[in-house]
Amino acid sequence: MRGSRILIAVIAALALAGCSTTGGSGLMVNAYTAKADGAYKLPAIPVSKIKRQYRRQIVAYQTKEKPGTVIVDTKAKYLYFVLDGGKAVRYGIGVGREGFTWSGTARVAFKREWPTWTPPEPMIKRQPELAKYRGGMKPGLTNPLGARALYLYNRNGDTGYRLHGTPEWWSIGGNVSSGCIRLMNQDIIDLYERVEPGAKVIVT
Questions:
Q1: What burial class does residue 171 get, using C-beta atoms within 10 Å of its C-beta: 0-12 exposed, 13-18 middle, 19+ buried?
Q2: How, if at all, do strands 200-203 and 70-73 pair?
Q3: Which intervals hold domain L,D-TPase catalytic (predicted)?
């Protein structure tokens, strides 16, 4: 009886802390609760409105790439972080709109928490109202880069593409960006903690 009470108490404490544990289905439990993060508090994401396949989960995944590699499947709208033992953490993503998609191999040059967003000049030409952010938009809950950004470089230098968070959780699963790969804020925080600088990123 005492052991049962202790187990119940531990489970309750994990739930209150918003920890992400893995359920029998591979889905991460409590992955999208409200989360205090530095100076900001991320609001909870209504999980019932996110399609099951786009929720963070552990899946079977066979690849010749080594653990720690990031593989982006733009067609399926999945990002995989390769683990040992033929498994991966899978996240739902939003990808580039028609005409803005890309593929190739890059590396994570560096990472930033609560990054500043600076729209590139071609984007400002398409959307002149963004000119006010030419010097950079301050970090925050409405910043398009969200809570984290991983900056992708290749042999030619900065690709201009990022793996980043977004406050627009409802856009996951769509062709919505100008080429960057976006994740829900709670997911990019999780990925950020897993990915090491220099990690290989493959976009298919």
A1: middle
A2: parallel
A3: 68-204
Based on the structure, what is the number of domains in the chain? 1
Mean pLDDT per segment of 10 residues, for the chain of length 204 residues? 46 41 74 96 96 98 98 97 98 81 92 90 82 84 96 95 95 87 98 98 96
Could you list the active site residues?
164, 180
For residue 49, what are the domain limits?
Answer: 23-203
Contact 63, 78 (CB under 8 A): no
Distance CA 34, CA 202 (A): 31
Element (H, E) at 28: strand 28-29
Predicted structure pTM score: 0.84
CA distances (Å), origin 34, targets 19, 40, 103, 191: 11, 11, 33, 17
User: How much is the pLDDT for 19?
Assistant: 44
For residue 105, being part of any structural domain is answered with yes
DSSP string for 36-103: EETTEEEPPP-GGGS-GGGS-EEEE---SSPTT-EEEETTTTEEEEE-STTEEEEEE-BEEPTT----
Residue 39 covered by a domain: yes
CATH number of the domain bearing residue 93? 2.40.440.10
